[in-house]
Amino acid sequence: MKFSRLIWANLTRKKVRLLLTLGSFAVALFLFAFLAVVRDAFSRGGGIASANRLVTINRVSIIQSLPLSYRDKIQNIPGVQSVTHDNWFGAVYQDEKNFFPQFVIDPENQRKVYSELVVPDDQWGNFLKDRQGAIAGDSTAKRFGWKIGDRIPLKATAYGGGAWEFNLDGIYHGTRPGDDETQFWFQWDYFEERVPQSFKGQAGWYTVRLNSPDDALRVAKTIDADFANSPYETKTDTESAFAENWVKQFGNIELLILSIGSVVFFTLLLVTGNTMAISVRERTGELAILKAIGFRDGSVLFFVLAEALAIALVGGFVGLGLALLAIPILGQSMSGMLPPLVISKTMLATALGFALLVGMCSGLLPGIGAMRLRVVDALRRI
Amino acid sequence: MAIPVIYNFRSVKERWTSAIVAVLGIAGTVGVFVAMLALARGFRATLVSSGSYDNAIVMRAGATSEMMSGITLDTVKILQDEPGVARLEGQPMVTSEVVVVAPFPLRSTGTDANVQVRGVSANVLTVRKNVKIIEGRMFQPGLSELVVGRNATNTYAGLTLGNRVRFGGGEWSVVGVFDAGDSAFDSEAWCDSRVLDDVYKRPTNIFQSATLHLTSPDALQALKDAVSKDPRLDVDVAREVEYYAKQSQTFTRLITVLGGLVAAVMGIGAIFGALNTMYSAVSERGREIAVMRALGFGALAVVFSFLIEALLISFVGGAIGCVAVLPLNGFTTGTMNWQTFSHMAFAFRITPNLLAGGIIFALGMGVAGGLLPAIHAAMRPISSALRSL
Predict the structure, then answer these.
(1) DSSP letter at B99?
(2) What is the pTM of this model?
(3) pLDDT, tens only, A46-104
(4) Domain limits of chain A?
(5) What residues of chain B, 160 to 199, have a C-beta less than 8 Å from chain A?
């Protein structure tokens, strides 16, 4: 491009200002990326939940349990591929701050239902043989520096309390981005053996895997109808509906993040718009000379716009680059407080699009002003 | 000699467009900062105000919340006679309680939220003195009657006075509304614990917690000592306020960390904006500065003058940010309390301290954004600046 040197010279005329404007863009894009990722993390529950899974809980509430005998009855419903039962354990590892979800699992069916969470076969084999065995998600294992073979003490808060010890036999990984890698699983038999009588033979909830997602509504209705009017009525939902409902109880995080995001963008637009306006104003004389020596109005507008867009693009890249570096670290340090943070390509593209849009808007106003400039007036001012 | 402040006012007025940009940048940052902290404080205040200094809550040893705890009727009977427990007309002021959750739709979105339902003893109002019936009446022991908190009746559909609701396999009539002074209890529904046990098919002689009214706030230690010496008891005793303060930790920390992070990054952006404004102010006014220096104002006076200008801009920005979020004060929202899996309504709480914090934050940004340009202005050689006239 033959004018690139002119644009470059204009850009670098005030280096401090250039750096500051780039900085504002970078900061705004960094924040945008961070907020978008947090928002995603909260609303993802529904998104990554499998469409062919149902969750059955006690109709009364999530904290009431269901009899274990329901498993075989659910298994026999046509359309059900496999079913597994879980319990929430809620014990404390060293300190209450070190929260991670612990599930008592049914080793027989766990891998059939949650096929996306994979454990190497040899590790799984060791786990099956070990009554006090446990499997941890990769991110939790990394968080506490656990290695396979470690002995992990937990202090139970429910189920009669007491100290429990587990051997870490394996580490599971999610196969899709955003899969929850913070869980801690251990054997149903070990749990049953230790808890007081009143908790035996009870499952917290059932997770049902279907042959086809099309059966979801029918199977959910059949399950609930089968147990209607029993002492333990059920409520069955698709996993995504269940997760969404859970997330909604956190309150309107979407609104919170949208309002912060718009404040950030509005501020950014003002800052860059102002900078562009100042730099064009300072150069009134030069622009007039450009026009006097024969540059067209369109070219003048183009110079100004190109400058604004270049700043937007570079600033945007810097900000997103920083976000790519920082978000995994932030995600790790807030593990246990926030769902896993995942950076998606769509988010990056949207962010860059926004940056260009802001650059465009901020260049357009002073650019049009420069275009309309009457050479005589401008030169007279010099 | 100092440069008169009126000069700064006039020059801000002269370049109002860029001043407004800097002001709004700072206002936005301060607004987000104050709003996030107000959210965290509101949540914490709601939980903390649930507890009283002269009440003690007893749960099974090791339990971190009532949901996880369980104590037997025998334990409660032993506790009643421990030293430090207050008595009213010879009866111990103790309420032994059962806590469950029941799904009710939120009025705002129609989605189900887990409402905490608390089975209490009939004398609960004498133990929890911050709770008062404001409409209707107290439930009658033995009947399926509910009294609901003020927030609960406003937030969840169906929990209105005179209504009949179904949950947990029973039908209940709402006979009263209570005010618990904006505490977490305001989001709860209360009923007779024995009726709740019956409807939820729970064993009747197991409670989740007992709350004891103390003869005086200082009596807690005596009670703790007595309990720890008693071999029949395996329980934890905590002051009610401390128990609730602990429950608020996770959420408060999350919001404070998130809010602090966002405000810090936005603050950097706002400082860039302020720097830009001040630098262009300095470069546009190179001649003025040179003239002032030539007139005999010292370099320090110029630095001060520009700093004052930056502080002026940032103070206005901070004030606007604070005023803009002020309407949020008292705005009620809700979230899940992770410790109990139940939904709780709470209000943003903006305190004078928080506003002062916002202004200080703004002034800090002003100094960070104004100092370098001010020094830059004062360092420029007078002769060359005047030559460019």
Answers:
(1) E
(2) 0.76
(3) 555 667 889 998 887 777 789 999 999 999 999 999 999 999 888 889 887 788 889 99
(4) 4-46+251-381, 60-232
(5) 167-169
* The total number of residues written for chain B in this structure: 389
Kindly state whether residues B164 and B116 are assigned to the same domain. Answer: yes
Interface test with A, best of B66, B209, B258, B271 (most A CBs within 10 A): B258
Tracing tokens 């604070």 back to the chain, one arrives at B322
For B250-292, write each residue's pLDDT tens digit. 778 877 887 888 888 888 888 887 888 788 778 777 788 888 8
Chain B residues with CB-CB distance to A245 below 8 A: 111-112
SS3 of residue A309 by DSSP:
helix
Q: Do B336 and A34 touch (CB under 8 A)?
A: no
Q: Taking CB atoms and an 8 Å cutoff, what residues of chain B touch A35? A: 262
Q: What is the CA radius of gyration of chain B?
A: 30
Give residue-wise pLDDT tens across range B91-149: 899 999 998 888 888 888 777 888 889 999 999 999 998 899 999 999 999 999 999 99
> Which pLDDT belongs to residue A370?
79
pLDDT, tens digit (0-9, with 9 covering 90-100), for B180-195: 888 889 999 999 999 9
Using a CB-CB distance cutoff of 8 angstroms, which residues of chain B are in contact with residue A230?
A: none
Tokens coding A220? 């959910």
- B contacts of A99 (beta carbons < 8 Å): 250
Q: With an 8 Å Cβ cutoff, are B272 and A270 in contact?
A: no
The distance of B1 to chain A (nearest Cα, Å) reads 31
| pLDDT classification of A1: cutoffs 50, 70, 90 | low
Longest pairwise C-alpha distance within chain A? 96
Nearest to B276 among A17, A28, A268 (CB): A17
| Residue B72 touches chain A, beta carbons under 8 Å | no
For B101, phi then psi, to 5°, come to -120, 150
State whether B229 and B261 are in the same domain. Answer: no
Q: What pLDDT sits at residue B7?
A: 83
Distance from CA of B18 to the nearest CA of A (A): 6
Subunit contact B250:A337, Cβ cutoff 8 A: yes
Q: Please calculate the CA angle A15-B370-B8 and round it to the nearest 5 degrees.
A: 115
The percent of residues in chain B predicted with pLDDT above 70, rounded, is 98
Asked if residue B78 belongs to a domain, the reply is yes
User: Are B43 and B154 within one domain?
Assistant: no
How many structural domains comprise chain B?
2
| Of B241, B239, B213, the residue nearest B79 (C-alpha) | B213
Predicted interface score ipTM higher than 0.90 = no
Task: Give the closest residue to B54 by CA, choosing from B207, B225, B223.
Answer: B223
Beta bridge partners of A168: A134
Pair type for strands A102-105 and A151-156: unpaired
pLDDT at A156: 86
Which range marks the domain in which residue B204 is found?
62-233
Which residues, in sequence order, are CB contacts of B206 under 8 Å at separation 6+? Answer: B70, B71, B72, B73
Whether residue B158 sits in one domain with residue B136: yes
Cβ-contact A86, A203 below 8 angstroms: yes
Does B322 lie in the same domain as B253? yes
In a domain, B57, yes or no: no
Q: Domain check: are B263 and B223 in the same one?
A: no
* DSSP notation for B126-186: HH-TT-EEEEE-PPPTTS-EEEEEHHHHHHBTT--TT-EEEETTEEEEEEEEEE-TTSGGG
